[in-house]
UniProtKB/TrEMBL annotation:
It comes from the Bacteria. Keywords: Cell membrane, Membrane, Transport. The lineage of its organism: Bacteria, Bacillati, Bacillota, Bacilli, Bacillales. Its main location: membrane. PANTHER family: GLYCINE BETAINE/PROLINE BETAINE TRANSPORT SYSTEM PERMEASE PROTEIN PROW, GLYCINE BETAINE_PROLINE BETAINE TRANSPORT SYSTEM PERMEASE PROTEIN PROW. One of its GO terms (molecular function) is amine transmembrane transporter activity. GO terms for cellular component: ATP-binding cassette (ABC) transporter complex. This is Glycine/betaine ABC transporter. It comes from Bacillus weihaiensis.
Amino acid sequence: MSSKFSRLTVALGLTLGLAACSGGEETSTEGSNASIGESLDYKITGIDPGAGIMKATTKAIEDYELEDWEVIEGSGAAMTAALKKAYDKEEPIIVTGWTPHWKFSKFDLKYLEDPIGVYGEEETIHSIVRNGLKEDLPNVHKVLDQFHWTPDDMGVIMSAIQDGEEPEAAAAAWIEENEDKVAKWTEGVEAGNGEEVKFAYVAWDSTIASTNVLANVLTDLGYDVTLSQVEAGPMWAGVADGSVDAHIAGWLPLTHADQYEKYDGQFEDLGPNLEGAKTGLVVPTYMEIDSIEDLKE
């Protein structure tokens, strides 16, 4: 009996010891001696390779001398999925982020400070149309020229889509609840007669929201609206070569600066449709890191 009791005591002690070790390993990076870089394998979770924020992040890695770091290409959906997975487990993660975006209402997040200014200050989102649109479709041009809203407006639609609503339905519901704002966009505009209007857009939550709102408005006015999902480069190229009538996702002055310069003179910039946009590197607030410079540690 005493021999069996002794073996049982040793086994129980080993089990409790292993459980204690395991419990310590599950508490994210708290108490760990690993640096932020080591805990993330020196990887930043990015989006599609043609996005301006990806080029800015590559430049940030160079300017901040983060030689060990790399930004991983993917998509906006893959980025937010990775963020949610890490957030639910309170694990470390760094993503390329932008505002407006629904993730800031779903998760407690913060931008890393950018003392060098790689990501610039506040950005605006511009409506970009093909040359000749004003002559060919003057009323469509007028709607796009008068289109303007706020990050809060956009956020309502983005959140509805994230909660499972179809983009077209979410846009239609917002329009129904904001007839006064839509009336300003359509002031002095005559109805169409089935003329085709082609939009290009990137699969960013912000652009999906704004493009679907305008598509709904123009459809209600009697136009035949076609939406084509592409990457940022083809989006700008389509407007420049006239195969697309417009896109409303020109993030300026920084994010799409290269596309703006590349096709300068081959499109018409109708100016900002939204102010208060921002880009940068984003982390959950539970991470004890405040600046991009901290990634050197």
